[in-house]
Amino acid sequence: MLLAIAAVLLVLWLLGFLVLHVGAFIHVLIVIAVIVAIVHFVRGRGARV
pLDDT of the chain along its 49 residues, tens only? Predict the structure, then answer.
């Protein structure tokens, strides 16, 4: 689930960065996506809800 959220945020970041160029908010999305992906891999498979 967390990996899916990270993937969606990454896609939104790419779309925003390449198409919309909204500003600093786009970079916040990539930071959140990276953090969510790291949390997913650190927690591992045993911590699924």
Answer: 778 888 888 888 777 767 766 666 667 777 888 888 888 889 876 555 5
